[in-house]
From TrEMBL:
The keyword Plastid does not apply. Belongs to the Wnt family. It is found in: Secreted, Extracellular space, Extracellular matrix. Residues 1-21 form the signal peptide. GO terms for biological process: canonical Wnt signaling pathway; cell fate commitment; cell morphogenesis; developmental growth involved in morphogenesis; muscle organ development; neuron differentiation. Ligand for members of the frizzled family of seven transmembrane receptors. Keywords: Developmental protein, Disulfide bond, Extracellular matrix, Glycoprotein, Lipoprotein, Secreted, Signal, Wnt signaling pathway. One of its GO terms (molecular function) is frizzled binding. GO terms for cellular component: extracellular space. Pfam families: wnt. The keyword Lipoprotein applies. This is Protein Wnt.
């Protein structure tokens, strides 16, 4: 479960032009954006520019891929497909066009947007800095616009933009430049779906920026406030994308082949933030080389839950084994004046269920 703290990340750009750019450390598929750069030396354009001229940005991109991967594993920890980074499996998942493919693409694009934006705010990149909205004319129009759009913005009293806001547009753009650039000229259905889901991921960050304010004035009287824009935390981004995954729409190419529509006339067209896919998922019950399914044998399940993490669904009806494990925990803790807590060690028995 733990990712290694090395600059190691899943390869998401591996579909076509750069399929050769993933390798393994242990059993993980890893991607170093630097390696993608090597593979794409012949390419021109924005990707090549980042590769040649922006090594610090590349490092942030790698961090972003890792942020996305961790969140993916958290969101899917109790499901049949658990966002595994086992190479042979992930490779197959990414070469297809299922909901799972869509989620991995979206969360990665979101992670890159997030990490690059954070780096700007922290002052770690020379190319960008905090968002500063201080010009006066701009300020007034922004206040009215934001006051309508954003309930957090104070509507009464004096306030102004200031502080150090998250410059999400920069992160958004760099995520696009790096992840989408190699695909921009193609219009097969998989590419269209991929670009759509990448953007849906980025929008899950950008559309949910919130406003934070700080009071100034005599002893916190809040006569003047400074406000700035801040990204949602990444768990929220993950939760939103997981919802989009659950409601993802299946699409088919239009006749001209330049866009897609939902399959079936009654389903409303997907909005920019919805995830889409063009291939049905396997059930992930049994190992299958072709689909990248690892199967669920040996996975832990919850015997009393009726949900996806419950033994019935997770084990696909095959049944499960129960084992009692002893665990040491802190118990009978006492607070001692002042200020220490002392505990005894107790052994508790837990039953662990694993799928057959
Ligand atoms: C995901 O599931 C596979 C088997 O299906 C298991 O080997 C692996 O440990 C799981 N990974 C995580 C991160 O839980
Ligand atoms: C198992 O599922 C039940 C019912 O959903 C829940 O109350 C319980 O906390 C779960 N147990 C674990 C260990 O997650």
């Amino acid at each position: 479960m733990e990712m290694r703290p090395v600059l190691v990340a899943i390869c998401l750009l591996l579909v076509t032009p750069i399929t050769g750019s993933f390798w393994t450390v242990g059993s993980q598929v890893v991607m170093d954006p630097m390696l993608i750069c090597k593979k794409t030396r012949r390419l021109k354009g924005k990707l090549a520019d980042i590769c040649r001229k922006e090594p610090a940005l590349l490092k942030e991109i790698a961090k972003g891929v890792q942020v996305g991967t961790r969140e993916c594993q958290y969101q899917f920890r109790n499901r049949r497909w658990n966002c595994t980074t086992v190479r042979r499996s992930l490779r197959k998942i990414l070469l297809r066009d299922t909901r799972e493919t869509g989620f991995v693409n979206a969360i990665t694009a979101a992670g890159v947007t997030y990490a690059v934006t954070k780096a700007c705010t922290m002052g770690d990149l020379v190319e960008c800095s905090c968002e500063k909205t201080s010009s006066k004319g701009n300020r007034l129009s922004k206040i009215t616009r934001n006051a309508e759009r954003n309930k957090n913005v104070p509507t009464e009293g004096e306030w102004e933009w200031g502080g150090c806001g998250d410059n999400v547009n920069f992160g958004f753009k760099k995520s696009r430049d790096f992840m989408d650039a190699p695909y921009r000229k193609r219009s097969d259905i998989k590419t269209l779906v991929k670009l759509h889901n990448n953007d849906a991921g980025r929008l899950a960050v950008k559309k949910f920026m919130r406003t934070e304010c700080k009071c100034h004035g005599l002893s916190g009287s809040c006569t003047v406030r400074t406000c700035w824009r801040k990204m949602p935390n990444f768990r929220e981004v993950g939760n939103r994308l997981k919802e989009s995954f659950d409601g993802a729409a299946k699409v088919i190419p239009t006749n001209d082949g330049h866009s897609f529509i939902t399959e079936g006339p009654t389903i409303k067209p997907p909005s920019k933030v919805d995830l889409v896919y063009s291939e049905d998922s396997p059930d992930f019950c049994k190992p299958n080389r072709k689909t990248g399914s690892l199967g669920t044998q040996g996975r832990q399940c919850n015997s009393t839950s009726p949900g996806v993490e419950g033994c019935e669904l997770l084990c696909c009806g095959r049944g499960y084994d129960t084992k009692v494990v002893k665990e040491k925990v802190n118990c009978q803790c006492r607070f001692q004046w002042c200020c220490e807590v002392t505990c005894n060690t107790c052994v508790v028995k837990n039953s662990v269920n694993t799928c057959r």
